[in-house]
Amino acid sequence: MKLLEYEDRRAKLQLATSLHEADKAEWRNITQKVDREGEESTPVLILLEQVLKNLRINLLLVSMLLTMIRPNPNKRKRGGRDAPEKLIESIPYHVKQLDRLVRVNDKSCIDNLRMDRNTFGRLCRLLRDRVGLIDQKFVTVEEQVAMFLCILSHHKKTRIVGHNFMRSSQTVSKYMHIVLRGILTLNEVFLVKPEPVDDACTDPRWSWFKGCLGALEGTYINVRVPIADTPRYRNRKGQVTTNTLAVCDRRLRFVYVLPGWEGSAGDSRILRDAISRPLGLKVPKGVNFLFFIDNAKHKYDYIFDNEEPVVHTINVVSPTALWTKKRDDLAAAMWGQRMNG
Predict the structure, then answer these.
(1) How far apart are CA 300 and CA 97, in angstroms?
(2) Helix (H) or strand (E) holding 65
(3) Which pLDDT does position 193 carry in this prediction?
(4) How far is CA 22 from CA 19, 50, 62, 63, in A?
(5) Cα–Cα distance for residue pair 314/42, rounded to 1 Å
(6) Residue 52 is part of which domain span?
(7) So what's the pLDDT on residue 291?
(8) Measured between alpha carbons, how far is 52 from 31 in angstroms, rounded to an integer?
């Protein structure tokens, strides 16, 4: 658009210049004609007419130049940004809003960001030290992370978050994606490698589960989907959700997460998908996870993963009477110890 405007103005300027040159040539011709005709011509009238014509051309040229120089008041500002003085005036409000979220009490922080103040501070420190996130001219790292968490935890629109933080939708969207890319690079920090319960474990909660890596379970997360897809995402409770498989170790640290399945999908189907994926859930042979899935019982077959050291992993889930007997014997032993203790 700017290139077209520049070419149009350039053409107008060239036209005015050519008219001016043509006028000068015409004036030379008239002067020569007057010299030839001598006393029979009226040079004063011709000269006056030429002066008036030159004046009109000069006024046209000046008008074009003023049009090119004058800024367009109706032209939209690039990116819809506010003037720097307005941004500076809004800084106290930004500080006050962030203080209300993360510096008043843990309840306010958990309600709005789904984490307490200590966790929020540690997350910001991780993003600074390991990702290289820095304070921008008008937006601090803490405010960037707070806007990201508001969208992520409450499924808010950028317009709503922008209104709450007194920012434009473009600013909220920009920093939301910056923080998201930083979070994705920290997968090795947030997703840990679990360690099985060893034989020397003295914790009464885990001493019965030798070789157990942790627990896994499906959970429903509310979503908004097109009307045509609503039946697929409606779960057995009548809610429109996705069924997300989450795996954690015995210290409640996440090991694996598989989101995206429809709410109508069964837990066993999602588990089969997780262990059959090339980069899915890998469970070494000889260890297991605690898994409660609609009172169903499963057994595991094993395959080799050639991309890592030779480790047997689970690939198939199917019913078995052996696992049922093992579970019942374990429950009976735990109950007997409780009654005798």
Answers:
(1) 52
(2) helix 43-69
(3) 75
(4) 5, 12, 17, 19
(5) 111
(6) 2-69
(7) 55
(8) 16
Handedness of CA 141, 142, 148, 152 (dihedral sign): positive
- Label residues 214-236 b or e (16+ Cβ within 10 Å = b): bbbebebeebebeeeeeeebbbe
State pTM to two decimals.
Answer: 0.51
pLDDT exceeds 70 at position 188: yes
CA–CA dist 140, 150 (Å, integer): 16
Max alpha carbon distance in the chain (Å)?
142
Do 53 and 98 reside in the same domain of the chain? no
Number of structural domains found in the chain: 3
3-state secondary structure of 339: helix
Q: Do 64 and 85 fall into the same domain?
A: no
- Amino acid at position 330, single letter: L
Contact 142, 115 (CB under 8 A): no
In a domain, 119, yes or no: yes
> Exposure string (b/e) for 265-283, b if CB count within 10 Å is 16 or more?
bebbebbbbbbeeeebbbb
Domain boundary among 15, 37, 69: 69
Phi, psi of 299 (to 5 degrees): -125, 165
Residues 6+ apart with CB under 8 A from 130: 185, 186, 189
Residue 46 and residue 98 in one domain: no
For all residues of the chain together, what is the average pLDDT? 75
Task: Output the pLDDT for position 295.
Answer: 38
pLDDT, position 294:
44
pLDDT tens digits along 268-305: 888 888 888 887 887 766 566 655 444 343 333 333 33
Same domain, 259 and 217: yes
